[in-house]
Amino acid sequence: MVARKAPQIWGCKVPFKVRFFMWLAFNDRLLTCAYCSIWRPGDPTSSALCGDNLETTQHLFCGCAFAKEVWLNLGSSLGGGWCPSDLDHLWELGRRLSRRNDRSLRSKILQSLVPAVMWVIWIGRNDKIFRGTLVSTEGVWEDAKRNISAWGCLCGGASRVLVERNSILITS
Ligand SMILES: [Zn+2]
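Above are the sequence and the zinc ion SMILES. Below is the predicted complex in structure-token form.
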């Protein structure tokens, strides 16, 4: 399953660190509390964002109440139900944003949406654990939109990507 996604993950028009992060996430190698507890038994294993449940990769991005709210907000912005049951489902939802074999600028940018949101959730989770800062679901969406806009240059359309309010406006 992961091997099939690898070309898509490495082909995403996002910074290398985000592609590497995605590769780790889909290979279940992110340093979540559950993963770290393998080597450091006794460390907290509960989800940093909801304070409940075992923090696995699946939980962090799909099962967590925080993540669910983020995806719900995203769904209300983009239209359509965004309730990913697991990472594979989440990836498919992202892929469905553009038509098959669509190599347009818009398509490339939309393909960076799921990585952008996952990346910001991960950063927010890390900030909460290591800096004690609180992250809001609205803040995640705002930061993700900023990233998508900034990463638009990787698609060859630096000034043609506008992310405003709750919409991703792509002009070409
Ligand atoms: Zn949680």
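The longest strand covers residues 161-164.
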